[in-house]
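Troubleshooting: if your tokenizer reports a length mismatch, compare your output against this known-good record of 318 residues.
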Amino acid sequence: CMSYWTGGEDGILDRNNNTGTVAPTVRYAALKLYSELPVAHAALSGANVTAIGTPGLHGLAGIDSGRMGILLWNDGSESRTTTLELKNIPTAFSKGNLAASIQTITSDADTTPNHTAYTGQPLTIPAHSIMLVTLEKSDAPVLLDRRHSLGNETVLLTTMPMTDRSEISCVSGTCTMPTGHYAAYDAVRSIAYLGTIKGGHVASTSVTYMNLPKVIYASVQSFSNHIPENSITMSASVAGCTATTPPQSFSFSTRSQTLELRTLDTACGFDTSTKPVTLSFTMQSEQTNHAEIYLSANKAEADAITTSISEYNILNPL
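Known-good structure output:
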């Protein structure tokens, strides 16, 4: 685990054995750019980024009530030039008081982003580089920073990620390939990430807290062009009790749900806030899909996320 943090240039931090100092690496800088992407994510396609789909170039978009961002990275050996064609975005982001900027991290030793202005010009992403284009409203409301979204009183106990990165195994000429499905929970932003690869797999993750609020609001974003009924579910259980909340499911028409932990109080016969409560998330899909479930204790924040997801998609409308 420590090798991930201090594993030289391949880690997050690079320790100089001669001086004993520790400095952030290029990987740290790239992850920092990703963390600055606004909270409601959407995939990108060649429909609105001309070079997406060409070898090496990939992208991800994000939006909230005051910012819009496009993250582009090039893992190829040649630079790529692309243009952005933004569709299905709020009117506020297409005119008026906007600040637009570009940050670029290249594969050299410099971990400080190169800042330039963005005025709609073509973008050149060098080989092995990452770029974040940000549009920000100067008169924006409070941004969805997603810190303490489940309240300041909650105490994180454990998270249970999953991933199928098993090695290829072959017996008597028959080989088993890893499925590639995954799931994880971001305890800082209170977001569950679920991913499946075509073939009918299940991705699941869970998180355990103390002192959760009695009502949790959830919004879902799917990167597929559909969300099959009951394919994405969320439920809660408490230590010392066999009862669980009724699973809440998401669909194309139901992107938000409410998880009532009071039902556990009634079923278990005690105040569940005094016990560890586990939130579980599952996605089963026959197709390749990635979903994100955003949790909030505040209904206004949850509604803002749901609005960003459902009305302000900047790529293929779901």
